[in-house]
Amino acid sequence: MQQTTSAATELLDKMALYAKMVDEALNEEMQKYLGSDFYEPLIYALEGGKRIRPIILLLSNKAAGGCEADALKEAVAVELLHTESIIHDDIIDDETIRRGKPVFYVAYGFNTSLLTADFVFGIILSIVSRSKKNVAEDLASAALQMCEGEIMEMKVEADNSEVPLDKYLLIVRKKTASLFEAAAKIGAKLASADEKVIEALARYGLNIGIAYQIQDDILDWNNGSKIARRVTVKGGDVKKMLAEIASRYAKEAKMNLQDLPDCEAKQILYDIAEFAVNRLS
C-alpha cells in the first residue's frame, strides 16, 4: 500500500510494527512443520502479505482492553485462512502474478496447490483447538461465506451480463468482508469484551472489509476488476459511484468505533478506515 502524505506514512509505520508481530508468530507456527514437505510451499505462500486482517484482529483486541500477545495465534489462523483462499482464488481466476512473483499454482503446480490449501486448513484447526476462546465458529462462518462469495462471483462471471449493485455488494460482503468481520470479532472476544463492544468491532470489520475490497476493485479497474466494471447504475459513472459507496462504508466503520474508549489502537483502526479508501495500491 502506498500513499504520499505524512499521516499515511505514520500509519504504515504503526501497522508495520503489528505486521512484524504477526510475521514472527507465523514463523513460530511454521517451525512446527519444518520437517514437512509442505514447509517450503507454505513459506512461499505466506511471503509478502500485507497482514491487514491479522493486524485488525490485534488492534481490535487491544482496543477492547486485551493484550495483543494473547491473540497472536488466532491472528495467525486468520492470515492462514486468507492465504488458503488466495491459493484457490488464483487458480479460479487464472492469475499468474501476485505480490510480484508467480502465483502459487504456477510455482508448485495444481496438485501441490490443492494439498497445501488442505494442509493449511489442518493448521487452522490445530490453532483454534488451542485457543482459550471459542473462535472456531467465527472462522468457520467466515470460511463458508468466502466460499459462497467465490461461487457467486464465478456464476456472475460465467453469465457475462450486467451485475446489479446489490449482488456485487453481497459478493464483496461474503468473499472479502466476512474475514475482516471475523478478525475484528475474534480480537474483541479474546479480550473478554462485553457483547456491545464485540458487536461494534465486528461491524467495524465488516464495513472496513467492504470499503477495502471496493477500493481494490477501483485500483484494479484496468487490469481485472471482472465484475465491478459490469455493475449497473442508472446514469452516472460506475467507478465514481463505487468510490462514493466505499467512502460511505469507511465512514460507517469509523462510526462503529465511537463508543470505544480512546486509545492508540482505536485511533489506528480509525486511521485504517480513512486510509482504506484513499490508498493508491
Q: What is the rounded distance between the termini?
A: 5 Å
So how many helices? Answer: 11
- Residue fraction in strands: under 5%
Largest sheet: 2 strands, antiparallel
What is the mean pLDDT?
94
> Low-confidence parts, pLDDT < 50 over ≥5 residues?
none
Rg estimate, integer Å: 18 Å
Shape: globular
Task: Tell me the total number of β-strands.
Answer: 4
- From the helix content, strand content and strand pairing, which structural class follows? mainly alpha
N-to-C series of helices and strands: HHHHEEHHHEHHEHH
Strand order of the largest sheet: 1-2
Q: Which percent range fits the helix content?
A: over 70%
List keywords for this structure.
11 helices, mainly alpha, 3% strand, two-stranded parallel sheet, 281 residues
Report on this structure:
With 281 residues, the chain is an all-alpha fold. It has 11 helices and 4 strands; from the N terminus they run ααααββαααβααβαα. The chain has helices at 6-30, 39-46, 52-63, 72-92, 104-108, 110-129, 136-159, 165-190, 195-219, 238-256, 264-276, and strands at 97-98, 101-102, 163-164, 231-232. A hairpin with a 2-residue loop joins β1 (97-98) and β2. It is globular. The model has no long low-confidence stretch (mean pLDDT 94).
Topology:
Layout: H1 6-30, H2 39-46, H3 52-63, H4 72-92, E1 97-98, E2 101-102, H5 104-108, H6 110-129, H7 136-159, E3 163-164, H8 165-190, H9 195-219, E4 231-232, H10 238-256, H11 264-276
Parallel strand pairs: 3-4
Antiparallel strand pairs: 1-2
Helix pairs in contact: 1-3, 1-4, 1-11, 3-4, 3-8, 3-11, 4-6, 4-7, 4-8, 7-8, 8-9, 9-10, 10-11
